[in-house]
Amino acid sequence: MINRRSTVTALVGIGVAGLAAGCLSSNSGGSTSNGSAAAGPGKSTIEVMYGLGPDTEPGFKADVSAWAAQNKITVKFTKAASWDTEIRTRVQGGNAPDVGLFPQPGLMCDLAKQKKLTPFDDATVATDKETLVPGFVEAGTCADGKVYGLPNEVSVKSILWTDAPSFKAAGYQAPKTLDDLLTLTAKIKADGKTPWCIAAESGAATGWPITDWIEDLVLRFAGPDNYDKWVKGQLKFNSPEIKPAWEYFQKIAFGDGYVRGGTKSIVATNFQTGGNALFTQPPGCYLFKQATFVANKGGFPDAVISKLDTETAPLAFPAKTASDNPVLVGGDLAAAFNNDPNTLKLRNFIASKENGTQQAKNGAFSPHKTADVSLLPNKTLQTIASDVLYKATAARFDGSDAMPAKVGAGTFWTEPVKWLSGQQDLDTTLNNIDASFPKTGS
User: Distance between CA atoms of 224 and 244, rounded to whole angstroms?
Assistant: First the structure.
């Protein structure tokens, strides 16, 4: 899921936050639901609603406020403590905000299907696509083929964290392929050490970190096109295209001595602090997969965060083949609830490459490859941006966030918990998830 889940929903806490991107400033309009241009002077006050975490929100507000002052528009900022619930309530009550930042593409497309959102015009989409990481436009495209959301920021999930001094002292090398990662895992075990910290405890949302593991592996084993079919329900969890991802994860999670505390400890270890054993002496583990939000306060120890560039050495989660570089991300998509000219101007700015300066200084990643990575506050984040995110051969948004809620925030969480706890085998786990998927795949 997205990193705001570090607060309640997920990402994506830092989820790695991000810079915003979007249309050129000359593109001041947008399109209505039937594609015609909006006209008129526009509203003087525009409400934008979001669920951004405390690390992302200040920079976002600063960037938008500066734009609003230049355009003589007042922006009302509304933060949702529970985005999914609050935005549905607002829409059902006929009191939707003007602009919303959706962490879940699936919910956004649900509302688009109900004709509650205004799509981006083709010119803006074409402009943004020139600089967006491949796959981000598709993430905001709904079943009717129209683009309803483009990202304000993204979080990078395809990251393996290590303790830099310990990893180097042991002579370990960054794996280039998934086979290399298994070889490294076995070597660390053979050296009498524990290879992995894996953590999936998140209160009522326990299990969601496993979805990030599986999504990253599906993207690698099945490829981007099959990943999309899987998210839509067109490929089953227990299909020959998707099951290999689970089988690979099983080799690590169930490997004898591979996980700190053993397999059953995974669901009892907190997802934010579960990697802190990397930094003990001797290290409690040598590898930890988690999105970049873990390098913010509340994740790694403060002493590590203050010296991030020397204490950590994040690695790209390897591809199936060395020449490939798929990247899994979370993020927030800017969408408009009406076709007022100023609403569309604000939405388009939020999604534009001109947005995001202050967000970058606070550690947020832009979805645009043209972003100035030097604005990011440390070399660790700069390297993740330039060498992982902006070199992606294909990027995909968190799949569970786009699946029907009863799966993506339901059985995709709960069934793996039963599997990891020893209550059922893999086939039962996958078949149970498949049985819960709505027959329409919607």
Answer: 15
The rounded Cα 400 to chain-centroid distance in angstroms is: 10
**pLDDT digits 0-9 by tens, 336-366:** 999 999 999 999 999 999 999 999 998 899 9
Contacts of 321 (CB under 8 A, 6+ apart): 177
Per-residue confidence (pLDDT) for residue 40, from 0 to 100: 59
Structure-token pair, residue 277 = 């054993």
- Residues in contact with 190: Cβ distance below 8 Å, sequence separation at least 6, in sequence order: none
Say whether the peptide bond before residue 282 is cis (omega within 30 degrees of 0). yes
Q: Is 150 helix (H, G, I), strand (E, B) or coil?
A: strand
Q: Which residues contact 306 (CB under 8 A, 6 or more apart)?
A: none
Show the low-confidence residues of the chain (pLDDT under 70): 1-40, 440-442
pLDDT of residue 41: 79
Which amino acid is located at 181 in the chain?
A: L
What residues form DSSP beta bridges with 368?
132
What Å distances lie between residue 374 and 112, 131, 312, 357, 361, CA to CA?
37, 17, 19, 11, 9
> In which residue are the tokens 């020893």 written?
422
Measured between its terminal Cα atoms, the distance across the chain in Å is 18
Whether the predicted model's global pTM rises above the 0.70 cut:
yes
